């Protein structure tokens, strides 16, 4: 494609109006997919739903073609573009019995809102950035859960076998306590025989549900701050580059003016280059 045509297409697909149109189509797709799950509308208007689905698929295909033609190879360097391409391409799979499971990917088209809206894209990118820190905290949480389950099984397997009869039951019980759901009932069953068991449950909840989960929140917030700062840093770098180019152009224009003034003098003069600071004789013709 000629560079001029590609530039015009890139301007079109990057325009706010084009992005808003895509968001509106994705929202409409989400509404129709939700209505299809209800029995009456899907039975009465199945043909209309099918027509709308095909129309939305055609719009998405045209959008993908415009973006590929407008951005060229740069389109395939963005992972979000690959996500959009896979989601849209899955909707084109023939509805055969062996490939019917792939047709379910059309429900993922609603997730394209994440790739279209920049703020949501930043949130997801921050979550991916936080994965190393999240993995470490998750391992710490699993170790705490395992150790607590072993201790609970050793201490209360006789007084509450329904909760701590073996390691598997103990793990499930401690996970239930971790979610802070129905843990008072579990504690009461144990405390009926062991009155001091509340110390074990309260300590586990404080350490796991409060401290460790707050660490998870802190890692995610830190990753989001880094993502926002990186975007601002890129914007600042682009602005500094633009300002640097503008300053250098002004300096070159000043050099050209100095050269013209030096050429108009009747005798040679020392001319200092503003850009590199080197001085040299100006060999200009003497006036008659």
UniProtKB/TrEMBL annotation:
Keywords: Membrane, Transmembrane, Transmembrane helix
Position of the signal peptide: none
Keyword Disulfide bond assigned: no
SUPFAM superfamilies, alphabetized: Voltage-gated potassium channels
Hydrolase as UniProt keyword: no
Subcellular location as annotated: Membrane
InterPro entries noted in UniProt: Ion_trans_dom, VGCC_Ca_Na, Volt_channel_dom_sf
Transmembrane segments: 48-68, 80-102, 123-147, 198-224
Name of one Pfam family that matches: Ion_trans
Boundaries of every Ion transport domain copy: 16-227
One CC-aspect GO term: voltage-gated sodium channel complex
GO molecular function: voltage-gated sodium channel activity
Topological type in the membrane: Multi-pass membrane protein
Protein name per Swiss-Prot or TrEMBL: Ion transport domain-containing protein
Native source species: Sphaerimonospora thailandensis
């Amino acid at each position: 494609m000629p560079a001029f045509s590609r530039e015009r297409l890139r301007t079109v697909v990057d325009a706010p109006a084009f992005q808003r149109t895509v968001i509106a189509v994705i929202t409409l797709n989400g509404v129709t997919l939700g209505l299809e799950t209800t029995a009456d509308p899907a039975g009465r208007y199945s043909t209309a739903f099918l027509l709308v689905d095909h129309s939305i698929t055609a719009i998405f295909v045209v959008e993908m073609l415009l973006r590929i033609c407008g951005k060229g190879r740069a389109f395939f360097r963005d992972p979000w573009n690959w996500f959009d391409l896979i989601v849209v391409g899955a909707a084109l799979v023939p509805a055969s019995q062996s490939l019917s499971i792939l047709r379910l990917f059309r429900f993922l088209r609603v997730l394209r809102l994440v790739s279209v809206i920049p703020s949501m894209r930043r949130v997801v990118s921050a979550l991916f950035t936080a994965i190393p820190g999240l993995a470490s905290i998750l391992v710490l949480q699993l170790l705490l859960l395992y150790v607590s389950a072993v201790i609970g099984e050793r201490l209360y397997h006789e007084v509450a076998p329904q909760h701590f009869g073996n390691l598997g039951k103990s793990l499930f019980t401690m996970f239930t306590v971790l979610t802070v759901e129905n843990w008072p009932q579990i504690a009461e069953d144990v405390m009926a025989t062991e009155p001091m068991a509340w110390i074990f449950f309260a300590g586990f909840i404080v350490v796991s549900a409060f401290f460790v989960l707050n660490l998870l929140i802190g890692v995610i917030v830190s990753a989001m701050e880094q993502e926002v700062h990186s975007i601002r840093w890129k914007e600042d770098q682009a602005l500094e580059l633009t300002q640097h180019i503008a300053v250098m152009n002004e300096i070159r224009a000043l050099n050209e003016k100095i050269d013209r003034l030096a050429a108009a003098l009747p005798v040679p003069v020392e001319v200092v280059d503003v850009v590199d600071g080197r001085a040299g004789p100006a060999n200009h013709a003497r006036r008659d």
